[in-house]
Amino acid sequence: MTFEEPVSVPAGGAALAGDLTVPDNARGVVVFAHGSGSSRHSPRNRGVAAYLQANELGTLLMDLLTEDEDRVDEVTREHRFDIGLLGRRVVAAVDWLGTHPATARLRPHLFGASTGSAAALVAAAERPDAVGSVVSRGGRPDLAGDALSAVRAPVLLIVGGRDTEVLELNRQAAGRLTAPCHLHVIPGATHLFPESGALDQVALAARDWFLAPGAPPSGEEGHR
After folding, report:
1. How far apart are CA 161 and CA 190, in angstroms?
2. Which of 206, 11, 6 is nearest to 93 (CA)?
3. d(Cα 33, Cα 119) in Å, to the nearest integer?
4. pLDDT in tens, the chain (224 residues)
């Protein structure tokens, strides 16, 4: 039987809405940190989450902004690039999972997309003993700045082969990471992986990484 419930994650005075799903055979739990302008309802993240749930992993899909903050951000865009704020909220989610009865025994992992990738890496740097691994999908890990050198969890950077600007930023960020790191390029894919089968490849690579952190997926561009 799978445990499922809507949750509210406390984070520095804010209450963040989320959806927690934990299958009976879960070997870990994955926190999703969405990208700029997105939410826990992102169909791409939900598609990846469903695949992970079917493969022995729990998931926490959560909003990184409150409803009021999201309304302000729609106009000003002042929060979506506040990596410090977003990172602290991913940290709060990691800490909260350690207290929840359904997840307290499970190792947390992080899945970030777009700017959420930077937030996930900041959180991994803040909780080196808790976070098991990190996956970035079409992300901006470069925005994590100095936190990159403090990350200890193995990091998988997944980028579309046709997402050339983001691919170069990921290469630069990989050079600053001191943790085990793999750059996995999906040929022919663009930034949001809309191409047929591209998101399936993301989900497969993420599953393998979370279940065996540090083991290189087939076809990766570079690893260490």
Report:
1. 7
2. 11
3. 7
4. 899 999 999 999 999 999 999 999 999 999 999 876 667 878 889 999 999 999 999 999 999 998 888 888 788 777 778 999 999 999 999 999 999 999 999 999 999 999 999 999 999 999 999 999 999 999 999 999 999 999 999 999 999 999 999 999 999 999 999 999 999 999 999 999 999 999 999 999 999 999 999 987 754 555 55
**Tokens, residue 185:** 């390029």
Q: What is the DSSP letter of 33?
A: E
- Alpha helix segments (H runs only) across the chain: 43-53, 67-76, 83-97, 115-126, 164-176, 198-211
Tokens found for residue 101: 């009865």
What distance in Å separates the CA atoms of residue 9 and residue 131, rounded to the nearest whole number? 17
For residue 176, give both structure tokens: 């600053």
Within 10 angstroms of residue 72's Cβ, the number of other Cβ atoms is 13
Contact present, 138 and 158 (Cβ < 8 Å) = yes
Residue 195 token pair? 């191409």
Unique residue bearing structure tokens 């410090």 = 84
